[in-house]
Design brief:
The chain contains ten helices and twelve strands. By secondary structure, it is an alpha/beta fold. Strand 3 and strand 4 form a beta hairpin.
Length: 269
């Protein structure tokens, strides 16, 4: 679940004005690892979570957390001066232990594109190259806005975000996945859900008549989904890179850049 749903449920916390460049950094989620590298902290990272595989050098770093939990003892031994944590996915008890031992824990919980940029700015004060982190944030905002302007539609494409088949899950308006659809000129048919990750039925999907189904996966997964809906729904299936589409980090922009041209190729409603 960490790999697929590296999605965040809390707000970003303010940065202390007295923060100084970090020398030893540990990241406890794959998207936080990507954010740290993008902010210029790559050379300072000494430990990461499982599935931290981007950029490639991240996969060579020691893993101190996985779906089973956080290795507090090992983290203490590594003597980090900053630990990057994810409230929505990291268990709070071991984080409280680290804090009680005097280790500085920073929560980075981006829920949308703007908060990805804000997270980069938050990390700038800990980076040995703060201006690079700020430029990364500015570039991210500029490219996101450019997509929004280029792919705006007067009548958005109706789209269903599909995760799995048994059970069948989707994403609501409050998720970054739904925002990717919006920036590309699509409307999430389950945007009105009261929970971020609702379980839905085939009947509910069919009643909302999606023109497109957006999934995370490759050709084989796309075939599975096409077979699942065959004879019931004629919607086009678009498969996006799983890591780009699932991680709340800088590469969410790549997911949008992958999706937008494919939606633009569809006829205007």
């Amino acid at each position: 679940m960490m790999r697929r749903f590296c999605l965040i449920l809390s707000c970003l916390l303010p940065v202390a004005a007295t923060a100084a460049p970090a020398q030893r950094v540990i990241s406890l989620a794959p998207n936080l690892t990507e954010l740290a590298f993008a902010a210029g902290l790559g050379d300072r990272i000494i430990g990461v979570s499982a599935y931290s595989d981007y950029p490639p050098q991240a996969s060579k770093l020691e893993q101190v957390a996985n779906w089973q939990g956080i290795n507090v003892e090992r983290i203490v031994t590594l003597k980090p001066d900053v630990v990057l944590a994810w409230r929505g996915g990291n268990p709070q008890r071991p984080l409280d232990q680290l804090i009680s031992l005097g280790i500085h824990v920073i929560y980075l919980d981006p829920q949308n594109a703007e908060q990805v940029a804000q997270a980069l700015e938050q990390l700038a004060v800990y980076s040995p190259s703060p201006e690079s982190a700020k430029r990364a944030a500015a570039d991210f905002r500029q490219q996101w806005q450019a997509l929004k302007l280029k792919y705006h539609r007067q009548k958005p494409v109706s789209a269903f975000i599909q995760f799995g088949t048994q059970p069948l899950f989707t994403a609501a308006a409050t998720t970054m996945q739904s925002e990717v659809l919006n920036v590309c000129g699509a409307k999430n048919i389950f945007a009105d859900s009261r929970v971020p990750w609702p379980q839905v039925s085939r009947e509910q999907v069919l009643s909302r008549h999606p023109q497109v189904i957006v999934i995370s996966g490759g050709k084989s997964q796309k075939q599975v989904i096409e077979d699942y809906w065959r004879s019931m729904l004629s919607a086009q299936v678009i498969a996006l890179d799983p890591d780009w589409f699932s991680r709340a980090g800088p590469r969410i922009l790549l997911a949008a850049q992958q999706l937008c041209p494919q939606l633009a190729a569809l006829p205007q409603g």
